[in-house]
Amino acid sequence: MSARDITTIEEGIRASDDQFIKGSIEEGTTFCTSAKVVLLTQKVPLYILAQLLGSILASGTLYLLFDVHKEAFFGTVPAGSNVQSLVLEFITSFLLMFVISGVATDNRSIGELAGIAIGMTILIDVLVAG
């Protein structure tokens, strides 16, 4: 998914929001019936599959390259269950992407402060989720 595709999605969301706010919903201009959005939703499953395959291959490569024993592991270990860790990871990733989308791509925000907002979000995510 390219930056142009993401921009198209954001423009479609803004256009649909504008239509709902104005109260004039036309079938041809709504977000869900847009031809660009339909083409993008066909690309999303392939994008997710590519991301999962890439992360599995990267993890497998690191596992084969480095012989790390459980005692020598220097990272963090989840305190709760696997499901709890997955939900917490989902929430922190959502918050990070929300801040990135809101600060870095919005015309109304101050572009010079985008790095500070994103960095502070990462800091809070690390302090809360580990």
From TrEMBL:
What Pfam families does UniProt report for this protein, alphabetically? MIP
Q: Which organism is it from?
A: Penstemon davidsonii
Is Transmembrane a UniProt keyword of this protein?
A: yes
Q: What SUPFAM superfamilies does the record point to?
A: Aquaporin-like
InterPro entries listed in its UniProt record: Aquaporin-like, Aquaporin_transptr, MIP
Q: Which UniProt keywords apply?
A: Membrane, Transmembrane, Transmembrane helix, Transport
Q: What is its main location?
A: membrane
Q: Which locations, inside or outside the cell, does it occupy? A: Membrane
Write down what this protein is called. Uncharacterized protein
Task: Write out the transmembrane intervals.
Answer: 46-66, 86-104, 110-129
Membrane-related topology note: Multi-pass membrane protein
Q: Which family does it belong to?
A: Belongs to the MIP/aquaporin (TC 1.A.8) family.
